[in-house]
Structures are given as structure tokens and as C-alpha cells.
Amino acid sequence: MGRILMRLPYRAYKKRRIEKLRICHEPGCGKEFYGPPIAKYCDFHRDIRNRVRKRKKISDPSVENMLFDHSFREVIEIEFTCPVIGCGRKFIIKIYPKQLIYPKFCEEHRSAYRRRITEVNYHPLKGVACN
Known about the structure:
This protein is α+β, with helices and mostly antiparallel strands. The protein contains two helices and eight strands.
């Protein structure tokens, strides 16, 4: 006689969906709607085409970099001085034809964080960076 195994249904019960009163996060909307706790937008703004585009602000490249206009036809190395107060180091940059944007600061001060630390530690009476 063969064995008869009883098979249980895969999902004997349906999980109850939790609905909460939510507020739409789209700027200027503020509609109240019922949805799961993870829902962020109302029915209209769930479609991405109906949301306001958040555009990145394009920063001026001359703030972090130097615009060096030249008419060189071959690669040349030029020495520049770091403009950070209290640094004054010399650094070499390769100048390429048809390229205008180059780093303004020496290797040690390329990041804004390092420039800020150097300017905070600079002592104006001594004329050197205090480390």
C-alpha cells in the first residue's frame, strides 16, 4: 500500500496589508492618502513624470580650478605657486594643448577640507601654519 502524504497549501492565509494615513512628500502637494508605511507619494505623484525635477546646481569651475588660457601646441611643464594662505609651495603642472582647466592648488591642498584646516591653523603674526 502506498503512502499518502498530505500537502499543505503554500500560503494558507493572506497577509493583511497595513494601511496608514500618510502625507505626500512632493513639495507643494501635501495631500493625505492611505497607504503602506513605506509609501512616500500620493497616487498622482507616484508616477515620476508628475514630480518636479530636482536639478543640480552647476558650480563655476574657476572656484576650485584655474583657467589657464594658452596657445601651446605641445605638452609643457610649468611651475605654479599654491595660493593658500600660509602655504606658498611650488608645484608642477603639465599643460596640454586645447585644455584650459587645471588644478589651482598644490597636492596637499586639493581638497576643500585640507584648505580649510590650513587656513584655520594659520597664524597671521607668525606668518606660518601652526601644526
